[in-house]
Specification:
Number of strands of chain A: 8
Helix content of chain B: 55-70%
Largest sheet of chain A: 8 strands, mixed
Structural class of chain A: alpha+beta
Helix content of chain A: 25-40%
CATH topology of chain B: Pyruvate Kinase, Chain: A, domain 1
Oligomer: heterodimer
Number of strands of chain B: 6
Distance between the termini of chain B: 32 Å
Strand content of chain A: over 45%
Structural class of chain B: alpha/beta
Distance between the termini of chain A: 34 Å
CATH architecture of chain B: 3-Layer(aba) Sandwich
Strand order of the largest sheet of chain B: 3-2-1-4-5
Mean pLDDT of chain A: 81
Order of helices and strands of chain B: HHEHEHEHEEHEH
CATH class of the largest domain in chain A: Mainly Beta
CATH superfamily of the largest domain in chain A: F0F1 ATP synthase delta/epsilon subunit, N-terminal
Number of helices of chain B: 7
CATH superfamily of chain B: ATP synthase, F1 complex, gamma subunit
Chain lengths: 133, 293
């Protein structure tokens, strides 16, 4: 299967860089799978899990929160606000993210900001529930 | 002529100082490695961010609807200078060269009749600048308690800046920090972050003809990215600063250690000369005393 270059970077470090077969990206408009030769697209991310298939059935899962994905001629780059390998993510960390999101909702000054924050919160709680069960 | 005891004391005190500077040099070397890795780890993100933004910005024509973070407020009256320096001294000209750059800029702006506001990140820059710009400094953000600068720290600063921008407190923001080139060379840099500026180089390099799809829309993405870019640039500046600071301290302390070594050598020479002179003098006295008998 054809491969393409995938990079996942957070402000603090480069989490993943290499040739992959496909990547499932949690875009704000719905999940999408990026494969080699994908049309150039730029998408905003929602909190969720990026699933990376490196071939031979191996799948790596990474948690991302916010940021955006950029598919270009030279591959896929995800710039995430927060990114963690799934192994490092535990319920406590996620609960912290949920708390942060709740604070954001409380702090929001305009209706628009509140709506955006509330949306993020619901996405996060959804993810948490999916993980806990 | 100092007595032998004075000389001995002096040598001892220089030796003690040398021990301290040597220790500081080694600590700085260890910290430098960590700071350098952190700065390097953050580079891909900031670079990609810049490419993507430059890409987006180049296709956005500056119209009335363009985000203010990109197009500016249309005025050029109030300037905010964000001066990032270290929290500690004893690192050579590191703090003063950043402060000098900021001071020159502030003076130039004020000479043009513009309003200048200064936001200090790091105590040392504040100490230097407050003498001259007491009324211009609006806030000091201390990161003394932060051991390893995380994105949250930069984000906090970034949010504060954005809040002020939204409130119309300034038109142009410039970031002052020291770029880490190597251990012996750090370049004080001024970078304009609001309105966002991209150098022509990245623009040309990213002027791809690819037809991009945007989800949700171009404006939404730009609106989400631009505020984020401010924090990212500040984060990068802080990390570069961290590495620069340790590099500057390391070479400063290396110099100090070497100077102390030289001083000890000179003092020891004087000490030995004085000692011999005294012995010779005593011998002469004894001999002449014996001859007189």
């Amino acid at each position: 299967m054809a491969t393409f270059t995938f990079e996942l970077v957070s402000p603090e470090r480069l989490l993943f860089s290499g040739e992959v077969e496909s990547v499932v990206v949690p875009s704000s408009e719905g999940e999408m799978t990026v494969m080699a030769g994908h049309a150039p697209v730029m998408a905003v991310l929602k909190p969720g899990v990026v699933a990376v298939s490196e071939g031979k059935g191996a799948v790596r899962r990474l948690f991302v929160r916010g940021g955006f994905a950029d598919v270009g001629p030279d591959g896929l780059t995800i710039l995430a606000e927060v990114a963690l390998p799934m192994e490092e993510l535990d319920v406590a960390t996620l609960a912290q993210h949920v708390r942060d999101a709740e604070e954001d909702v409380a702090d929001a000054k305009t209706d628009e900001a509140r709506q955006a924050a509330a949306e993020r919160l619901s996405q996060l709680t959804e993810l948490r529930d999916a993980l806990v069960h | 002529m100092p007595s032998l005891k004075d000389l001995r004391n002096r040598i001892a005190s220089v030796k003690a100082t040398q021990k301290i500077t040597k220790a500081m040099q080694m600590v700085a070397a260890a910290k430098l490695r960590r700071a350098q890795t952190a700065a390097e780890a953050a580079r891909p993100y900031a670079e990609r961010m810049e490419t993507v933004l430059a890409n987006l910005a180049s296709r956005m024509t500056v119209t009335e609807g363009a985000p203010r973070l990109l197009a500016g407020t249309g005025r050029d009256e109030t300037h905010l200078l964000i001066v990032c320096t270290a929290e500690r001294g004893l690192c050579g000209a590191f703090n003063s060269s950043i402060a000098r750059l900021a001071r020159d800029k502030a003076n130039a702006l004020m000479a043009q009749g513009k309003t200048v506001k200064i936001l200090c990140v790091g105590k040392k820059g504040y100490d230097i600048l407050r003498r001259q710009f007491k009324d211009q400094i609006i806030e000091l953000i201390e990161l003394r308690s932060v051991r390893q600068i995380g994105f949250e720290n930069a984000d906090a600063v970034g949010r504060k800046v954005l809040q002020m921008f939204d409130a119309g407190a300034f038109d142009v923001a410039t970031l002052f920090y020291s770029k880490f080139k190597s251990v012996i060379s750090q370049v004080p840099t001024a970078q304009q972050i609001i309105p966002a500026e991209f150098d022509g180089e990245t623009k040309a390099a990213t002027g791809l003809d690819a037809v991009y799809d945007y989800e949700p829309g171009e404006e939404e993405i730009l609106a989400a990215l631009l505020p984020r870019n401010v924090s990212v640039q500040i984060f990068r500046a802080l990390l570069e600063n961290g590495a620069s600071e340790q590099g500057a301290r390391m070479s400063a302390m290396d110099n100090a250690t070497r100077n102390a070594g030289e001083m000890i050598k000179k003092q020891t020479l004087t000490y030995n000369r004085t000692r011999q002179a005294m012995i010779t003098k005593e011998l002469i006295e004894i001999i002449s005393g014996a001859e007189a008998l």
